[in-house]
Amino acid sequence: MKISSILVALVATREATAFAPSLTSSPLTRSIATPVAKPSILPSPFRNDAASAAVISSSTTQLYMGWGPDPIWSTGSIESNIQACPSGSCVSLKVNVEDGTGYIYPGQYVQCRPAGDEDAKPIFLAIASGPSGEPPKPDPPGKKKKAAEADIAAGPETPSPIPATWEFLIKKAENNDWITSAAAGSSFDVSQVMGGGYPIQENVEGFKYDFPTQNILLFATGSGIAPIRSAIESNQLGVGGGSGRTCTLYYGVRTADDMPYVSKFPQWEELGVQVVPVVSQPDIPCESGAVWGGRTGYVQNALEEDGVPIPRNSGALLCGVKGMNEGVKSMLVDSGVFEGRVMFNF
Fold it and tell me: What are phi and psi of 194, to 5 degrees?
């Protein structure tokens, strides 16, 4: 039986147990098969990551780079708030927006705060689902200078608002209980889309450093998988479909129960992404009954064990804790990956 088939069967087993922010999953006893040396996907005892939703009304479509200017607030209403992994450490929100045209690059984010609380410190949330807007198209070769200057003088076109649905993955913390524990129908403030996201087109395609990349490496820890998921589902990585470009995701969590999006792993592999989950504390008992049999340690350890194929023609997207980001970047650059091809969303 294929590993992906085993995963789907295990996910389906948990579907009878509904997840909510205040509840934990029912204990299930099962074990995971002994892994091979470099597993594509290790059989997992996790439930399907749950969908949730919030409804947001926004008329702002401007894109800002970096941390952006002062936020322009609009109102959001939570439709549902559902536990995203068996441990309950994260929640998943699905968000309906009136205009999704401003979200054009994986890794972009919004600011959120309690409704009407001007003194509250906003939280920054990367959008987890794929971009809902269309990025600007590059000028065609041979476009005359005067025509290009006229386009610049006229300013960017303002697209008509188009409704969209976004998803967020939020790790529970003391400063975000107002949203991670919010009931359906609660309102909150949300900003315009901010940040430049991952500069994939600029650094992965073309001949800026060398030939276009042949190998993409993705690294995430914990809820940092959110913008990485966005990149995978954006169709901007140029992997799969006979493209000849390979892609590997290294995803690290503390325990097997702390891993969201397990049900998406087979879908990601179909898109051309090899998934390598890594658990740092496999000996901690899981409430779900999961017994981890896959890669252990940290994401950095897994990268060191596997090495970097064709480093001069490799690129990487990262999102996670500081130690992982710094360690992985150092290893990639030392191996020969161009520093400009090691990309962060913030």
Answer: -130, 165
